[in-house]
Prior knowledge:
By secondary structure, this protein is an alpha+beta fold. It has helices at residues 12-15, 25-35; strands at 2-8, 18-22, 46-50, 64-65.
Amino acid sequence: MKAWMVHPGKDPYDDGCVLVYAPNRNDARLLAFRYGPWYEFDYIEFRAIRKKQYDKFKHTGNPVIETNDELPKDAPPFFTNYEIGY
């Protein structure tokens, strides 16, 4: 599985983002749409950005990670108020 940062709208700072493990961009967008914390957005509004450095932190269970606390302890935060984990 590949890691993707997915967010609705044009900017992840506006409405937040999630880290999703999926085989491709469209699956990542669909998982974020179905299981993410947003209810007021349409699928077409979701954007997915590839995050290769998080591939090694895949965990079992939910493929959608909403907070940095859900990542393993050795993983860097994927999103903060100040920067997006690149």
